[in-house]
Structure formats: structure tokens, C-alpha cells
Amino acid sequence: MKIYILILLLAFSWADLFNQEENGVIVLNNKNFKQVLSHYPNILIDFYAPWCGKCTRFEPKFEKACKVLKKSDKSIQCAKIDADTYKEIATEYDAESYPTLILFEQGNPKRYDGAMRDHSVIGWALTGENVSSLKVDLSQIEEMAQTEHVFYAFFGDIDSKEFKTYNMIAKFDEHRNFVHTDDPAAIEKYNARAPTLLAFRQFDEPVVHLEGEFGRISALTFIRLQGIAKCMYFNDIDSVNIFRGKRTAAFLAVDPDAHPKVVENFCNTAKADDSKVLYAWVDVKNPEQEEVREYIDIKDKESPHLSIVHFDIHFGMMRFDYKGDASTLTSEDIERFISRFQKGSVESRYYDDQEKAWYDVTNPTHIYYENYDQVVLNEDADVVVYFYDNREDRKVVSFHQQLGKLSKEIGKSDEFVLARYDWHKNPPTMAQNTKPNSIVLFTKDDKSKGITFEGEGTYEEIRNFLLTNSPVYKEKFGLNEDL
């Protein structure tokens, strides 16, 4: 009897190791990692970190890929592990950046270094080759058209120069899905004059053909423009188009059930607008869209709320709010608001109230994820970066005031740059060896490490710090008695 109970306990303990699943993906930890790894002959593991934005965006794509891989001939199981918590396991497999995908075949690890999208992961896991574009037939195209928000399909010979161009574009674009086909049935059904490119969409016109000859510029332009709905219901792809692309966009936060006419008027305006302004609306009842409302600081605004988000190289993200009663918005109201913004007659609402000392000056440059290296590692300039976090109010106000004063006094200079980096909104990995609410000087002679300001943040302290450590500042501004 005791042996029977022991066997049952062992069985239940073993089962517990595999019952920790989320959306079909086994959740690993330091207790079950080795056992799960040895149990499955083929298993794909996602090493991620909870704070990693790229990991969060990749998670649904990984889950989507896993559903296909489990049903494949190779029966590939999927798992994930919090590499930030279980650092010793991540270190053992050299998973130092996130997300990292490793496929274990009979225990042998193979690292993925392709684009982080589901179709590419599937192709690599099944064939062993990095697949930027997935080969499909007519039935697969028709299936994808029912499930994918938007995807692009190349029609033609994979040995052609046009396909090589297309494949290179797909290789460096992780946010869109790319497929290719030479299936005669697909070419005939969609009247595709190969070589050519088609966009399949679940919005506006469902199938769009590339007009004119296929080339790198024409293909890139087609992909960028045809992936954007005239009126978007905000999703991950729109996030890339707007925030990473730094595009001007009108945002409507609304309860579509309570104000369907407002949404209709917003979208009608979008369809009639031939300017470069994008239009996106978010459902205030949808918890998945709470993050974007918080990001553009309209989470607590009364619904419906209309605003325009605009990006400026010096001022960062700026918001322009509609001041009227948004619950009765007509198409004419929205058109007038957009027109007034374009003419510069709408008062801006700066994203961070505490940064207003910076906004009326010409020198400070706002650093984003994309331009960090371009600004900070510029070997022709000494660069002072203020790494700020608005959750620590007192120091933020003091530093912004003093640096704003400094910026006004020195004006615009190509050799001495003042910049600011929002620690809370950008990945900390871009600001290695720094800490929030710190001022760091990167001289043009040594960009390998910065010199951190130590002090309370008075104007005199900051100026003495620069006189001591910045050759450019000392030469250009050290003898100016007005400073």
C-alpha cells in the first residue's frame, strides 16, 4: 500500500512539472527545466524577461507559432522561462539578450537569429534555415486572409532578382508577415502579373496590388502604406507605425457602444483626409489598450477624448487636445481640429509638465530608442545627457530647470549637445552603466563610458562640472562672462 501511494505521489509530482502552462506553452523554472528538457525530444524555449517590451510583443507570435509546431511532423513542444529570475539557467545557455529562442533537438541546442515573427520561427524550426518569407500555396493564402490583420505576398520565381529584393526587405522587418508563392492557382485567382507584390488586409480594400514595376523603393513604399488602415482600431502594428515611426496621429479614446456615431464620424474624416496624419481609435473598455492610453497620457480623460500626438526631434512627444464637447463630434469638427493643428493654431500639451523649462529653447535633443547611438556616440561633439524619471519629482524639476537655463544661455551648438533621455519610457539597456535622474557627460574623445555628475543639481555645480570635464564646453563657453 505504501509503495502504491508513493508511486501515485511521484506520478502527481511529475505531472505537476508539465501542468504549468499558459496558452499551450509550458512555463519553466529551476525545478522543472531539466526534466522537461529531457522529456521532449524536440522543444523550443523562449528565454524572456517580464520588463522586456520586445518580449511582450513577441509573446502572442510565439504562441501562434507553437500551435503550428506542435501539430507538425516534428511534434515540436514549446516552453518559456523568465530568464531575469532564473539567471543561472539563462547564463548556462548564453541567453543574454531577450527574447532568445533556442531549439533543443535530442538535447542539442540551436539558437535562432532570425526575425521575431511567427512565420519565420515556424520555417526555421521545421527546416533549420532562417526563413524571412514563408512559401505558401493558394489554400494557405486563403486561410491567412481569414486570420491575419495584414500580410504581404510575393508572386513569382524565387530565383528572380525581385524575390531577392523582397526577401531582404522581409529579413529586416520583424513586425510584418511575409509570404511568397509560385502556385499557378494562386497567381490565376488573384490575377497576379509575376513578379509582383500583393497586400492582403482585413480592412478597407482586402487585396491590393503593387502598381508599376517591382523595385526596392516601390516595394518598401507599398509595404509601409498598405499596412495602414485609413481608420485604425489600435493594435501592435499600429504601435510600430505611429510610435517607432514617429508619425503624427489623431487618437480617439471612446466607448464605441456608447458613442458609435463619433467613431463613424472619426473614420469618415480619416477616409477623406489625404494628408500624412494617421487616425487611430482605442476602446476605453478594452484592458489591452489601457497601456497606449497611459502612454499618451489620456487614460484618465473623460470619454470620448480626441487628441493629436506629434513627435519633435527637440521636444519629444507632444499632445494637442480637442477642447470642445467630444461626445457630439461631427466630421466637420474633426476636420477643423486637424486643419487648425496643421496651421499651428492648436495649443500643445507637452507630455511631461515638469519639462517645460526645456521646450522654449533650441538646444536640447530628445533621445529615443532609435537615435541613441546617433546622438550620444557622435564623435564630433561633447554630449551631456540627462537620464530622467518623472516618478522622482523633486530632482527632476531641479535638473530640468538648471539644464534649461544652461541651454538658453549657450544656444545651438553642433559641438556641444544637451540631450534628455526618458528612463521610464525607453529600454534601460540603451543607457548602460547609468541610473535614473543622473546627468552624464560623454566627451567626443571617449565615448566608451560617461562621466557622471555628482551633486545636488544647482546651476553653479553643473557648470563647474562641465568646465572641469568637457574640453569643448571650457573652450567655447568657459570665458564667457555672461554665463
UniProtKB/TrEMBL annotation:
Which residues belong to any copy of the Thioredoxin domain? 8-146
Which GO terms of the cellular component aspect does the record hold?
A: endoplasmic reticulum
Keyword Ribonucleoprotein carried by entry: no
Q: Which Pfam family, giving just one, matches this sequence?
A: Thioredoxin
One of the GO biological process terms: protein folding
PROSITE patterns linked to this entry: THIOREDOXIN_2
Q: Which residues form the signal peptide?
A: 1-15
Keyword list (alphabetical) reads:
Signal
Does the UniProt entry include the keyword Signal? Answer: yes
Concerning CDD domains, the annotation shows:
PDI_a_family (cd02961), PDI_b_family (cd02981)
**Matches recorded under InterPro entries:** Thioredoxin-like_sf (IPR036249), Thioredoxin_domain (IPR013766)
Per its record, what are the GO molecular function terms?
protein disulfide isomerase activity
Q: State the similarity comment.
A: Belongs to the protein disulfide isomerase family.
Q: What is this protein called?
A: Thioredoxin domain-containing protein
Species this chain originates from: Euplotes crassus
